[in-house]
């Protein structure tokens, strides 16, 4: 036999300043009694979990088709994170115009000895 959980009276709670706009709207709805507990919570959790898995599979299949083959490497492992870090580094460090310096090294490399 299942025991009924006591209901929480959100009307007794005061508003919290730290809530963002969306959270405040949800809190207001709770206080007005616009939300109700679901029957058979465990079953509803399983339904939601299955829906999330199916969405994730569908999303992966859609993305596979929309991401060009030559760009898929970006989404493997930490590649996207590494690329974001490299871009962030390059944006935070001043660009050096050293083309001539690089060109000289290519034309006549310094092998570390005279002769």
Question: Could you describe the 3D structure shown?
Answer:
By secondary structure, this protein is mainly alpha-helical. The protein has a domain at 39-96. It is built from 4 helices and no strands. The longest helix has 26 residues, at 41-66. The radius of gyration is 29 Å and the shape is elongated. The chain starts with 20 loop residues before the first helix and ends in an 8-residue tail after the last helix.
Radius of gyration: 29 Å
- pLDDT < 50 runs, ≥5 residues: none
Helix content: 40-55%
Q: What is the makeup of the main sheet?
A: none
In short:
With 115 residues, the protein is mainly α.
Task: Outline the secondary-structure elements.
Layout: H1 21-31, H2 41-66, H3 79-92, H4 99-107
Top keywords for this entry?
115 residues, 52% helix, 4 helices, mainly alpha
